[in-house]
Amino acid sequence: MSYAITRHDLAGGFLAALIGLPQAIILGIVVFSPINTPAAVELGIQAGLLAVVIGGIVAAIFGGAPLLITGPRASAAFILASLVKELSEQIPATGTGIPADLLAWLFLAVALAGILQLTLAALRADQLIRRIPEPVSANFALIIGIIIVLDQIRPLLTGAFGRRPSLPEFPSLIPFIEPGLATIGLATLALTLALMYHPKLGPRAIGKGKHFTYRGLAPLIGLLAGTLAFHTYQPYFAPDNHSVLSDTIHLAGLAGSFNQAFNLFPSWNEEIALTVTVHALLLAVMGALDSLVAAAVLEAERDVPFNPRRELAAQGLANLSSALVGGIAVVGSLQRGKASADLGARHASAGIASALFILFMVTAAWPAVGQIPLAILAAMLATTGIQMVADNIGRLGIDMAHVRSGEHRPDAITS
Question: How far apart are CA 297 and CA 303, in angstroms?
Fold first, then answer.
């Protein structure tokens, strides 16, 4: 695989970084959302950023799919959030912090998923994984999308992340709703969705054999517009309803995150070990499926061949590396890979450049990035959930049409 770098690879890597940064922050928060504390939000953001940087670089260096760019994905984040919920019920909290054993079991699950992916690659199981029926992955992603949307109701309306309220508990949120903040959050969500699905914002030719789509920039445009509107009208908000990233993370981006001593050897508990193993297996299989099918789609669309066994091994190494530094699970992203390829990227160097651009944004550029409001991040995550729901309903509809007509449809991931 070529590691040559051109201006197109740099441009594609930069666009993928703009898309990947808010995803990493938001999905990191999702993983720790079952723990309703400010420390959990802070740790989640750090874990998401570490994953997109370290996991992205490792996957790009060792991968077999030049166009695929790796980072946190909603499917993997939801699996880890489910694990955090179960662990928080079995491991009692001490004070306002997060129990060390909970973190140890969580990152052990990510490391174990990486080891399982390496084992699957050694056993040449990549072809078997790609044969998992399309409706299975589509239904799974559909459920995840719905839950992600429901999880954003509280932060969209109140500006603070926390546990998702049950249906009878929703009226209890009313006293905490800030009308101005909710209006900006919902308007940001509407703007982003309008840009993503507007028929005139599809692919445009920018050169021979190259296309660019404004839809790929929709999350970034929504993020910038929402942040600008938020800071313009911030004086009119209640004092407790204007949290931004820098209020949540009292660090300079990634600085200090590496000081977290994530121990991968927790206190032994057979019941917890079984729970962690099941989640790690699910992470490994779903991550491998998402990555390999996304790489296959990019191969078909861009005529750039890939090595599925090598890519599966690289995803395993990326997850293992991410866990060792305190990052969440990573998966090959079709969305970021497409966005990068739209600007002409053809080499694995685009993935490395994307990770390095994100590293710059959360270190040298953190004073600006830290001004992103939590409510606007919730709007971006709600957009991701709605997109997952819409895309996977479409996938299931196509499958049903093929079943009725008796035609065979090859696996493809479009979310």
Answer: 10
Contacts from 243-246 at CB under 8 Å and sequence distance 24+? 243/159, 243/160, 243/373, 243/374, 244/370, 244/371, 244/372, 244/373, 244/374, 245/25, 245/45, 245/369, 245/370, 245/371, 245/372, 245/373, 245/374, 245/377, 246/366, 246/367, 246/370, 246/371
Residue 93 near residue 32 (C-beta atoms within 8 A): no
User: Is the separation of the CB atoms in 8 and 343 below 8 Å?
Assistant: yes
Q: What is the pLDDT of residue 26?
A: 79
Strand partners, 395: none
Q: Mean pLDDT across the chain, nearest whole number?
A: 79
Residue 7: exposure state from Cβ atoms within 10 A (0-12, 13-18, ≥19): exposed
The DSSP code sequence of 154-188 is HHHHHS---PPPPGGGGGGGGGG--HHHHHHHHHH
Rounded CA separation 270/292 (Å): 33
C-beta atoms surrounding 406 within 10 Å: 6
pLDDT, mean of residues 79-92: 89
| Six-digit token string for 118 | 């390496």
Distances in whole angstroms, Cα of residue 163 to Cα of each of 37, 175, 327: 9, 17, 22
Q: Are 373 and 225 in contact (CB under 8 A)?
A: no
Query: Does the pLDDT at position 406 exceed 80?
Result: no
Q: What is the 3-state secondary structure (H, E, C) of 316-381?
A: HHHHHHHHHCCCCCCEEEHHHHHHHHHCCCCCCHHHHHHHHHHHHHCCCCHHHHCCCEHHHHHHHH
Q: Which two tokens stand for residue 301?
A: 């669309």
Which amino acid is residue 194, in one-letter code? A
Threshold 0.90, pTM exceeds: no
pLDDT given at position 48:
92
Instruction: For residue 215, name the pLDDT band (cuts at 50, 70, 90).
Output: low
Separation between Cα atoms, residue 76 and residue 137, nearest integer Å: 12
Q: And the tokens for 338? A: 């497409």
Tell me what pLDDT residue 253 has. Answer: 44
Beta strands 203-207 and 210-213, pairing class = antiparallel
At 158, list the tokens.
């109140």
What tokens does 175 get?
């006293």
